[in-house]
């Protein structure tokens, strides 16, 4: 207004000031909702603020936390990726993205993101600890898949047993490992064991196409055509 004190400028300034006051009010409400663990309300309020303050990394990180609490990890990843670009040396964002991918069973993307964290700070304790875990798991899975490609099914089964021991806390890795063991047993024509393991997978995931197909192959070997 000092640089250009016209009526039009004054109206524009007044509008912006009103909008600014409104956004501050919404921000206070969003923080209050977050503290009261009403994450759905917090997300709704943060949506309004971020429609205007598109480049605010901290608000995106807060909304990501709300998405995580609400069980919407893919939306959290989107906000955290934006926050990682908007804020320099944002190791925390890369660490959180890596952890989410890991919990979702995407070990390769998890490894990629945790490496980005270590590029920024090679002494980051949380990232280094996660990196060691994901790298070990990733190597075991790659090795098991190589054995399958080579038709070394017994070796692949042993390697997938190791995967389950390496990560006993995140259920998706045990399910994926059992799915691949089911495949190996089917290929190895170990019919009784294959039916048992494939059935375990299908109890967890009734529509798992790979396990259904592998169990069907075993039933064919056993002349159980109806099954």
UniProtKB/TrEMBL annotation:
<dbReference type="GO" id="GO:0051087">
    <property type="term" value="F:protein-folding chaperone binding"/>
</dbReference>
<dbReference type="Pfam" id="PF13181">
    <property type="entry name" value="TPR_8"/>
</dbReference>
<dbReference type="GO" id="GO:0034975">
    <property type="term" value="P:protein folding in endoplasmic reticulum"/>
</dbReference>
<dbReference type="InterPro" id="IPR051727">
    <property type="entry name" value="DnaJ_C3_Co-chaperones"/>
</dbReference>
<feature type="repeat" description="TPR">
    <location>
        <begin position="91"/>
        <end position="124"/>
    </location>
</feature>
<dbReference type="GO" id="GO:0005783">
    <property type="term" value="C:endoplasmic reticulum"/>
</dbReference>
<dbReference type="Pfam" id="PF13432">
    <property type="entry name" value="TPR_16"/>
</dbReference>
<dbReference type="InterPro" id="IPR011990">
    <property type="entry name" value="TPR-like_helical_dom_sf"/>
</dbReference>
<dbReference type="GO" id="GO:0051787">
    <property type="term" value="F:misfolded protein binding"/>
</dbReference>
<keyword id="KW-0677">Repeat</keyword>
<feature type="compositionally biased region" description="Basic and acidic residues">
    <location>
        <begin position="8"/>
        <end position="21"/>
    </location>
</feature>
<keyword id="KW-0802">TPR repeat</keyword>
<protein>
    <recommendedName>
        <fullName>DNJC3 protein</fullName>
    </recommendedName>
</protein>
<keyword id="KW-1015">Disulfide bond</keyword>
<dbReference type="InterPro" id="IPR019734">
    <property type="entry name" value="TPR_rpt"/>
</dbReference>
<feature type="region of interest" description="Disordered">
    <location>
        <begin position="1"/>
        <end position="21"/>
    </location>
</feature>
């Amino acid at each position: 207004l000092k640089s250009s004190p016209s009526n039009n400028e004054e109206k524009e300034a007044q509008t912006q000031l009103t909008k600014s006051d409104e956004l501050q009010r919404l921000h206070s409400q969003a923080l209050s909702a977050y503290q009261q663990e009403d994450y759905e309300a917090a997300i709704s309020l943060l949506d309004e603020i971020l429609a205007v303050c598109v480049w605010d990394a901290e608000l995106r990180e807060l909304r990501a936390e709300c998405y995580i609490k609400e069980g919407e990890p893919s939306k959290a990843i989107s906000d955290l990726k934006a926050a990682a670009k908007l804020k320099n040396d944002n190791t925390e964002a890369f660490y959180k993205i890596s952890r989410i991918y890991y919990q979702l069973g995407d070990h390769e993307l998890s490894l990629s993101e945790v490496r980005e964290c270590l590029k920024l700070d090679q002494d980051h304790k949380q990232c280094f600890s996660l990196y060691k875990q994901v790298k070990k798991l990733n190597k075991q899975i790659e090795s098991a898949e190589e054995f399958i490609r080579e038709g070394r099914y017994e070796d692949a089964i042993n390697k997938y047993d190791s995967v389950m021991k390496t990560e006993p806390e995140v259920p998706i890795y045990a399910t994926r490992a059992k799915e691949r063991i089911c495949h190996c047993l089917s290929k190895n024509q170990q019919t009784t064991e294959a039916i048992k393991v494939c059935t375990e997978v299908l109890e967890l995931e009734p529509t798992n196409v790979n396990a259904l197909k592998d169990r069907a192959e075993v039933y064919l070997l056993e002349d159980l055509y109806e099954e």
